[in-house]
Specification:
Blueprint lengths: L1 E3 L1 H9 L4 H11 L3 E4 H9 L4 H11 L4 E2 L3 H16 L6 H13 L2 E3 L12 E2 L9
Parallel strand pairs: 1-2, 1-4, 2-3, 4-5
Helix pairs in contact: 1-2, 5-6
Length: 132
Amino acid sequence: MVIADADVWIDYFERSSSRTGQALDRLIRSGRTAVAEPVLAELVRGTQGDDELQELKEMLSGVPYVEMSRETWVRAGRIAHDLDRRGTRIPVVDIFIASLAIEEGHEVFTRDRHFERIPGLRLYKPKGASDA
């Protein structure tokens, strides 16, 4: 399973013909992508009113949803602590996404390069998906 980060979902919604959008579309159609709690919160935050929120909920209704357990939260804290000690600051929401992916054995599909600095995280890298 692949957890798509908010940047990938936004690209998919706004530019579905981009290589990133097409790659996510293939994952959705094959049933290989999931929405993580932190990603859902980021996407809802970016909606422009009730109509857009409803549209987002409908678009994501068929996509599997993964939740964070107590252990995931603890893992996130440990990852953040370890990265901080090494002088590597990563947004906490992205730490949550990484923690969930590591715990569940999922990959993360993102264009944010800071994910590469998280030990033990597997990134999904489709061919040609690095376009802006």
